[in-house]
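Input/output pair, single chain:
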Amino acid sequence: MAPGFHDVPLVINGASELFIALFGDNGRHARIVAIGVATLLRQRPAVEVESIFEIRD
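Output:
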């Protein structure tokens, strides 16, 4: 982790909560991909959340 940052799981869970806040129960999902890496360029932590959505009329 970047020095002092240990909250990657909180960021990933926050993305899940955002989907539910935006889409209600339709935003509940099975997480496809969620990755947190220790550090990137300039000592910045990174989190990637990949989602697939189905849009219905």
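The first helix runs from residue 8 to 23. The CA atoms of residues 2 and 41 lie 10 Å apart.
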